[in-house]
Amino acid sequence: MTRALPRLSSARAPLTREVEVIDEHGERGLVSIPAERDLTVYVDRRELVTLMTLGAQPELLVLGYLLNQRLIESAADVESITVDWEVNAAAVKTHAGIDRIEERTAKKVVTTGCGQGSVFGELMAGIERLELPDTRMRQSQLYALVNAIRLQESTYKSAGSVHGCALFTLGEGDDDAQMRCFVEDVGRHNAIDTIAGWIAMQPAGQLEGGRIFYTTGRLTSEMVIKSAQMGVAIVVSRSGMTQMGHEVATKVGLCAIGRATNKRFVCYAGSDRLILQPGLAGARLPARPDGV
Known about the structure:
Elements: E1 7-8, E2 16-22, E3 28-34, E4 37-43, E5 46-53, H1 58-68, E6 78-84, E7 89-94, H2 101-104, E8 108-110, E9 118-120, E10 137-138, H3 139-151, H4 155-159, E11 163-170, E12 177-185, H5 188-200, E13 211-215, H6 221-229, E14 234-237, H7 243-252, E15 255-261, E16 264-269, E17 274-275
Parallel strand pairs: 1-6, 4-7, 10-17, 13-14, 14-15
Antiparallel strand pairs: 2-3, 4-5, 6-7, 8-9, 11-12, 11-13, 15-16
């Protein structure tokens, strides 16, 4: 019998707060800053990890975290996730427990990410078994995606100091790139984990079309691996890419696009998945100070 998707609470918390500041002229004023709060995750009453988060969609964050850490196989392994901000805790109840949880969470790898700090287990374990879909994206669709991000209302625009991630699906049209989910958090890992949780809760057939993942953060090995685990073959960032991120993307056949702002971008890996339309880029602009 197929198990149902988990029951999720709907805990919410303010995303920003106002603080008094003094500017360069000595004048006082109020500005908004992102909230940051600790969320301790308990799995079957066993303390697992404490995440620092904005708190926008904490249940999906916890679900995606468990999936991306490969502690559960699917959302159906979880019976319920209950978040209580009065005690800053998330209680996860599974159907059958997590096999060898103490052994699998004994080793921690310090990551380059903000807002998380470590991942469990061998970072590269099992990536050779990842099979990505045959996704292709036109340059015009890339531009449509970047423009959709530019127009998106966000905490970053009002308060700064957060990372944003989004999931797009591609259609048949030249500029058909539909944003399906947009998440912000104090760390890009939290944002991608929340999207992983959101994907896991969608009904079958709801996300047809090639999946594209966008992040404001740099493309590190952890971000590439998590994207591939979500069935994403193309990732786009407004930032750059690390050496290990490049190595992992090349190994799994993932297309990695960085420095994506306006009509500029750099394809670091997997260029066979990108259908170039150079005429759309306009005149070549002078090189930026970083050489790109």
